[in-house]
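Continuing the batch. This is chain 6 of the set; chains 1 through 5 are on the previous pages. Same settings as before, nothing changed between runs. Recording input and output for traceability.
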Amino acid sequence: MNRTIIALGLLACSTHIAAQDVNIYTPGTDEGIVYFLPKTALEVNIIATRISYQPGELCQYANRYLRMNNVNPQPETYWEIKQIDVRSIGVPDSTKAYIIKLKDKSTLSNIELTESGIAKAINTTFPKEYEQQQGYELEKPLPHESTRKYMTEEILMAGSTAKMAELTAKEIYNIRESKNLILRGQADTMPKDGASLKLIMDNLDKQEKALTQMFAGTTDREDKVFTVLVTPEDNTKDKIVLRFSRLLGALSTDNLAGDPIYISMNSTAPIPAQTDDSKKKKKPEGAIYNIPGKGNVSVSYQGKKYFEKDLPITQFGSTEVLVNELFNKKINTRVVFNPETGAILKLSLIHISEPTRRTPIS
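Output for chain 6:
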């Protein structure tokens, strides 16, 4: 693909164009198919975990019977940052809108657009394998096992909370002893095979966990994604994109209840823009596409860097042209664009040979 693009760039510079198929779009002046090139917006995603703690019914006896220190007797909810991710996404660039005139001899008008009008394929369909996956794997709260169904009759009939705590702790120790006897092979009735052993141990673990929650309490974890769009600018240093609070989660930039989340960026592979005024005044003579530059993007919070990566950024790059003559009936040209950056993902050129003429026999 690289060799084809290089050859095509030379062709774009040297070929004389006889017909004009693409114009800069001015509303109400031309008829045809309007498309946009994308510009880059940085999608900053803060994946935060909401942690909810509920104390157990017997939490005040946790240290006395189970030697569990620092069990909080009060419910608590707080937030933690799990991950920060930044992605380059494409949004229509209103300064780069073009119109393709409909012509029978050109395949340029066979163009596929996104819902927002960004070009993503010419003379072909956009392949599904190029579609980006947008989702994150988020943690959700798991259902808690009922503790009551593992309580013995003696525990349920206890006359006081203190007595219930004592009997529940004894049942936990009995479960632990049963597990140890099975693992040592000293139980009166041993499992017949490995599958039976696993089933019994899993059930004992479930009972122990449910009864222990009576003392230790339960903790639920739920992930949420907070998203903000940032317009990339070169040499940006510590720009506040959001604020974050352990008690309140993600907050707006002007809410001083949270500490700032900073983003920094700078161009790492800039493509110099054309300086020739005559070239700037020329009308486009083919399909326009982007050659994006790159920018190093980093995001930090409370002195810790959560994200750093080089991302494609169209504003740090330039535009080029696929000339009109590549889209005639003699060449089957198929182009796939990256709708996020406007760059070429795939380009194929197939020359169509003319049928051989036969001389009639006299």
